TrEMBL record:
Annotated protein name in UniProt: Cyanate hydratase
Pfam families: Cyanate_lyase, CYNS_N
Organism: Streptosporangium oxazolinicum
Family membership: Belongs to the cyanase family.
Keywords: Lyase
Active site (record annotation): 89, 92, 115
Lineage of the organism: Bacteria, Bacillati, Actinomycetota, Actinomycetes, Streptosporangiales
Domain Cyanate lyase C-terminal residue range list: 76-147
Function as written in the Swiss-Prot or TrEMBL entry: Catalyzes the reaction of cyanate with bicarbonate to produce ammonia and carbon dioxide.
Catalysed reactions, semicolon-separated: cyanate + hydrogencarbonate + 3 H(+) = NH4(+) + 2 CO2
């Protein structure tokens, strides 16, 4: 059986070969683009129907579908500090604004955290006269600590 990492690489290669976009895959799978992309990169298990739809569109084999259905070990970084420029910028945002985000969550919601399990993510390109912007929305359920 393929690993999640091997399946993700097969997906990336098939995307290039077929010209299929993440948005097209999300539509075929019936899930939001961010969730679908994360699943196809190995971070979520897919249902049998979801994996079948993705591999059919990408013209991949059943062993890829089987890997996509398997339970993942979450966390995608190969190093503590990411080296990819896009991922590093997100890391930098958390370094700079993480304490601020934490303080604002505590002030507005109380002593607790934002869930990354009950969570939605959206990424949009927004035109701007000063240069297009990237809007990243993280929407996680508030979970109060229970002492």
């Amino acid at each position: 059986m393929l690993t999640k990492k091997e399946a993700a690489e097969a997906v990336r290669q098939a995307k290039v070969a077929t010209g299929v976009t993440w948005a097209q895959l999300a539509e075929a799978v019936g899930r939001p683009p961010a969730w679908t992309t994360a699943a196809l990169l190995g971070q979520h298990p897919m249902s049998k129907d979801e994996a079948a739809a993705a591999v059919a569109l990408l013209e991949l084999r059943e062993d890829v579908a089987a890997a996509l259905r398997s339970q993942p070990t979450r966390g995608a970084l190969d190093a503590a500090v990411p080296v990819d420029p896009t991922i590093y910028r997100l890391y930098e945002v958390i370094q700079v604004y993480g304490p601020t985000i934490k303080e604002l969550i505590h002030e507005q919601c109380g002593d607790g955290i934002m869930s990354a399990i009950n969570f939605r993510l959206d990424v949009q390109r927004v035109p701007d006269p000063a240069g297009d912007r990237v809007v990243i929305t993280m929407d996680g359920k508030y979970l109060p600590y229970q002492w």
